[in-house]
Amino acid sequence: xxxxxxxxxxxxxxxxxxxxxxxxxxxxxxxxxxxxxxxxxxxxxxxxxxxxxxxxxxxxxxxxxxxxxxxxxxxxxxxxxxxxxxxxxxxxxxxxxxxxxxxxxxxxxxxxxxxxxxxxxxxxxxxxxxxxxxxxxxxxxxxxxxxxxxxxxxxxxxxxxxxxxxxxxxxxxxxxxxxxxxxxxxxxxxxxxxxxxxxxxxxxxxxxxxxxxxxxxxxxxxxxxxxxxxxxxxxxxxxxxxx
Length: 243
Description:
Helices cover 29% and strands 22% of the residues. The chain is α/β, with parallel strands linked by helices.
C-alpha cells in the first residue's frame, strides 16, 4: 500500500518553501546609472534577450523604476512570501514576483503597496494580477503587472523568497538590476551590469546624433541594400540604390 499523500496544509521546509534573507546587490551607483537609459536602449545592448513579456506593464502610473531585485515565487492564488519580502527588501529594491502568470487571484493590493512604499521599496514587477486599483493609484507606488482582478489572495504558502524566478519569460536572480518604464521591463544580470553600462555610455552620443538627424530627415537607407545583397536577395525591376 502506498504511503499517505501529504495534505495541502502539510508544508515541508526546503525547495518550494524557503527564505533567503541575504543577497548580493550590484553597487548602488551602477544601479542608479541605469535609470538614465530607456528600456529599448538597454534591451538593444542585451541583444533583445532579457526583456519581459509585453503584457507586464505599469498599471498604476507613468513612473519608471530601477533597482535591485528581491525575488519571490508564490503558489498561484497565494501571497504569503510577498508579505515576508516586505521585511527582507531594502530601500530602493524592486520586488519581483513569479506568480506563474496566474489569473486566479491578485498578488497584492493597496495595503501591501502602502506598506512597501513606507519601507522605501521602489516598486513591484508581478507576473500576475493586482487589485484595489483606485486605492493603489492613490498610494502611487509603481507596480508592473499583467492586469487587474477584484479577487484577493490567500496567505498560506508555499513559496520562495530570494531564489531564482521566472517573470514575464525571463529568469530573474536575486540582486539583478530591474529597469521598467512605459516601454516595458528589462533585466540586467549583476555579473555583466558594468559592461552593459559602459557600452550604453559609449554609444550614447552617436545614438543621439543619429536620432536627431532622422528627425531632421537626414538619413540613408543604403545599409538595407547592403544587407539584401549580402544575403543574396533577388531584386527585380528598376530599383534605384538608396542614397
